[in-house]
Amino acid sequence: MVQKEQLAVDLVEVAPFKALAVRTGMTTDKSGTRTAWSKLVASIPLDDNRLAEVPSAFVFIPQDQWDGGVDTLWVGLAVHEFGDVPEDIETLEVRGGLCVSASVNGDEAHMWRVYEAIFAWAEQSNEYEIDRGEGVLGMETVPFEPLNALTVPYSELAAFNFTMLYPVRKK
Fold first, then answer.
1. Domain membership flag for residue 85
2. Residue 3 within any structural domain of the chain
3. Per DSSP, what are the bridge partners of residue 21?
4. Would you tell me how many other CB atoms lie within 10 Å of the CB of residue 33?
5. Which of 9, 70, 91, 157 supports an S-S bond with 121, CB 3.0-4.6 Å?
6. pLDDT value at position 25?
7. pTM for the complete prediction?
């Protein structure tokens, strides 16, 4: 008997926060986020006292791009304050609020099933929809432990480990 994979989709509240980030685009070899990560940590070291205590990186996605194809992303770190911002770094204000959330912990096929599950949940919900308003940022959190996936070429990743957090609003 084949057991059907259970994918948990939840609603979670996210507190507003600030981030220092590097903008990137979608690349055919999927290296854009890795290049942006390298630029980010070259300017904002991981021992910077502005960094929030959450040991993870963020990939920010403009929610209004989901329908037409995502082409702009930011890779960032949460901070308590912006302080002196290096020239190649952007500041982001994440509004927080209610988000639909799902965790990815598996191979690439599993990752795509989680994306499908989260968007299916939004389509089937009688109460909520993904907030695709201009300026609304969804995010994916990438933990540093046991492995920061942004330090490994995409083609070499055997398993993905991150959490999706996409803002929702009442229908």
1. yes
2. no
3. 76, 90
4. 23
5. 9
6. 85
7. 0.90
The CATH number of residue 57's host domain is 3.20.80
Residue 100 lies in a domain: yes
Say how many residues make up the chain.
171
Give residue-wise pLDDT tens across range 84-125.
999 999 999 999 999 999 999 999 999 999 999 999 999 999
pLDDT in tens, 49-60: 999 887 789 999
Give the per-residue pLDDT at 2: 44
How many domains does the structure of the chain reveal?
Answer: 1
Taking the CA atoms of residue 95, residue 97, residue 103 and residue 104 in that order, the dihedral angle to the nearest 10 degrees is -30
Rounded to an integer, what distance in angstroms lies between the CA atom of residue 108 and that of residue 158?
Answer: 8
DSSP structure string for the chain: -PPPPP---EEEEE--EEEEEEEEE--TTS-HHHHHHHHHHHHS-TT-TTB-S--EEEEEEEGGGTTT---EEEEEEEES---SPPTT-EEEEE--EEEEEEEEEE-HHHHHHHHHHHHHHHHH-SSEEE---TT-EEEEEEE-SS--GGGS-GGG-S-EEEEEEEEEEE-
Do 61 and 68 contact (CB within 8 A), yes or no? no
